[in-house]
Structures are given as C-alpha cells and as structure tokens.
Amino acid sequence: MPKQPTLAVAAEIDGDLRVIRQILRQPVEAQIERGGLTGPQQSAMRVLVTSNGLSLKDLSKELGLAHSTVSGIVDRLQKQGLVKRTVDQSDRRLIKIEASDRVREFLRDTWPSLEMHPLAEAIRAATPSERQQVLHGVRILRSLLERRNEKNCFARKTE
Predict the structure, then answer these.
(1) DSSP sequence for 111-144
(2) DSSP label at residue 50
(3) Pick the CATH number of 6-100 from 3.40.50.720, 1.20.120.80, 3.40.50.920, 1.10.10.10
(4) pLDDT in tens, 66-84
(5) Helix axis angle, 39-49 relative to 101-109, nearest 10°?
(6) What letter would DSSP give residue 36?
(7) The whole model's pTM is what?
(8) Does the pLDDT value for residue 142 go beyond 60?
C-alpha cells in the first residue's frame, strides 16, 4: 500500500470528522427546526440558555442587534413560553431575561439523549470488536492531539 502524505491523511480524517459531526447533529437540528424559531430567535436562545439571565441591553450587545430588534425577539419568545423576564434580585431596577423553566427542563432531560442518540445507535449496532477498534482509534487521535497541544503550549510559555 503506497504511503499517503501527512496532509492527505489529515484532510481525509478532517472530512470524516465533518461528516460524523453532521450526522450527530441531525436529531438536534431536526428538533430545532420543529421548534419553528427564526435564526435570530435561535441565536437569542443559544445565548440565554448558557447564561444566568441577561438584561435586554446585554443580550442586544451579545447578539450584535439593535435594542428594539432584540426587544421584539424577546417578546415573541416570551409569548411562546421559551423565555421569562424576572427582576434582578441584586438590583431591582433591572429586568433579566432568561430561558424558561420549560426550556431548562428540556435541555436537562431531553437534549442529552438527542445529542447521543446517533452515536449510541451506531455503537449498539457494532460488533464488540468494532466497538473496541473505534474506541482505540479515537483514544489514539485524542492522545496525539493533546500531545501536540501540550508541546505548543509549552513552546509558547518558554518564548
């Protein structure tokens, strides 16, 4: 078997990893699509679910959108029960916007299985030998990347 150049092997692995990521994201993307949210609404939800609540000003800044635009987005999300406005306990003049309890429960209870479903199904269908080969290959790749990363971090510290 002819020896493949390093960049060609790296490009092939990168392509395979891209396809794998797309396949793994399919259930998540389908769920998002079923939610019927616009792109800006999805962006707002991504920011809000990873925060402990933001003011309208901070959310606008985070999204890079005008205050009036974000206010309309939040109004529509609130009508759908996806976000709630609460008074900030440390400064009662501020209103915080945060993901609703319903959204947080969904993220806690349902989201992890959506993300893991394609991978779990593929591993379930694999033979024990295939499972071990996949696990071994992924561990080797991770180790190689971590080793490279450590060398780069060490080289930057000594410069």
Answers:
(1) HHHHHHHHHHHHHHHS-HHHHHHHHHHHHHHHHH
(2) T
(3) 1.10.10.10
(4) 999 999 999 999 999 999 9
(5) 80
(6) T
(7) 0.60
(8) yes
